[in-house]
What we know:
There is one protein chain. By secondary structure, this protein is of the alpha+beta class. The chain has two domains: about 5-85, no CATH class; about 90-140, no CATH class. Helix content is about 45%, strand content about 15%. The longest helix is centred in the C-terminal third of the chain and has 15 residues, at about 90-105. The radius of gyration is 20 Å and the shape is elongated. The protein starts with a strand and ends with a helix.
Amino acid sequence: MSDDAYLFLLPDRRPRLGAPLAVVGDLECAETPAVRGWLKAHGVSVTSDQVRILPAQAKAFLPEGAEHLPVPLSEEEALRVEQECAPQSITDMESELLEFRQTTQGWEALVHRALEAGVPGERIARLTGLDPQDIGRLMA
Length: 140
């Protein structure tokens, strides 16, 4: 294990920097007492979206004042971290936005069907993340 990376806690209201530790996959360092103690001290788990990892060469991108911990990685692990942290191309991002639009275009019809099936409006809001006021307008 020679390559280093940085685990860090992403402060609220920050752009999503690095990759979530859970997305990178199993890393040997995540099983060490140092990392387990660091996570426990901050009251977070390995699966928290707030626990992020950046390759060592991206240290300058660590948010100012963010709690961080240098960790060793194997060559294969370092490659996975770099791949997960690589920015998406604009075309990939635009494709995701188009998919989102296609997914959300029929939201009103879906909510109507759920209401007709007897799903309460509050439950629909919780399951979909939609604004309860938008659901209330459809119920009226």
